[in-house]
Specification:
Length: 265
């Protein structure tokens, strides 16, 4: 009897321990499941946030496109390009004025030096053989041309244009006519009358093909063509200039400008 009671008690104890063990294993499993669920939820939230961010960025891009934002940006770029072209044109005018001033200084120096040499050579001759100095009579066309050049170098382009135009009408056969016609075309460029400038310089090239001013006229034509957006025409003009007049003073600048234009796609 006692043996039976003991066996029953042992069976009850074993059942209780098994129940506790099963309960412990179930809690651990639940804990693991909860951890996995938490990680999964966190990952889902991160992915959803990334998706929402991409949607916002796409919406922003679509808004720019639909609102004409890209067109506005392109317009701004074109405006900047035009401003750069205008600045280059103004720089060309300034460089031309500087060249005129430097040339005028050289001419003045040469003239003064020549006069001094003549006086010195005359002073060494006997007084009996000396003759009265012959007054230098400056021709009217030279004075008129010099006046027009002064106006151009002073950036008084409207006045210079009128002076060059009057000179060509009054002295069409003057030796200064080729330079005056070039100056007329250049003042038109400075006044942004680019089509007229191209026509005037072409007239100068046709009428005075042997003039040393022809390369300058071609270079001025190319700059006017650039201002008008005639890139292909400007390239051709510059190529002709470099090919026909490789030793001209403007040839290096023409070569540089041609390379810049060749780089434009």
């Amino acid at each position: 009897m006692r043996l039976i009671s003991a066996l029953l008690a042992l069976a009850c104890l074993t059942g209780t321990l098994s129940a506790h063990a099963a309960l412990f294993d179930d809690k651990e499993a639940r804990k693991k499941i909860l951890e996995v669920e938490a990680k999964s939820i966190a990952n889902d939230d991160a992915h959803q946030a990334a998706i929402n961010d991409l949607k916002k960025r796409i919406a922003a891009i679509e808004a720019i496109v639909q609102g004409g934002g890209l067109a506005d940006m392109q317009n701004q770029i074109e405006q900047l390009k035009q401003e750069i072209a205008n600045l280059k044109g103004e720089l060309e005018v300034a460089n031309h004025q500087l060249e005129l001033t430097q040339q005028r200084q050289k001419d003045l120096y040469a003239d003064t030096d020549g006069r001094i040499r003549k006086l010195e050579s005359g002073a060494t001759q006997p007084a009996a053989n000396s003759a009265p100095p012959v007054p230098v009579v400056e021709e009217k066309d030279a004075k008129a041309f010099a006046a027009a050049e002064d106006l151009s170098s002073s950036a008084k382009h409207k006045e210079a244009f009128a002076a060059y135009d009057a000179f060509l009408k009054d002295y069409p056969n003057s030796k200064f006519a080729p330079d005056a016609m070039y100056g007329l075309g250049y003042t038109q460029f400075a006044l942004k009358n680019y089509k007229s400038s191209i026509a005037t310089q072409q007239k100068m090239i046709d009428q005075y093909p042997q003039s040393p001013k022809v390369p300058d006229a071609m270079y001025n034509q190319a700059n006017s063509q650039i201002q008008l957006g005639l890139v292909s025409s400007a390239k051709k003009t510059l190529k002709d200039l470099v090919s026909k007049y490789p030793d001209a003073s403007v040839a290096p600048n023409a070569q540089k400008r041609l390379k810049l234009l060749e780089g434009i796609k």
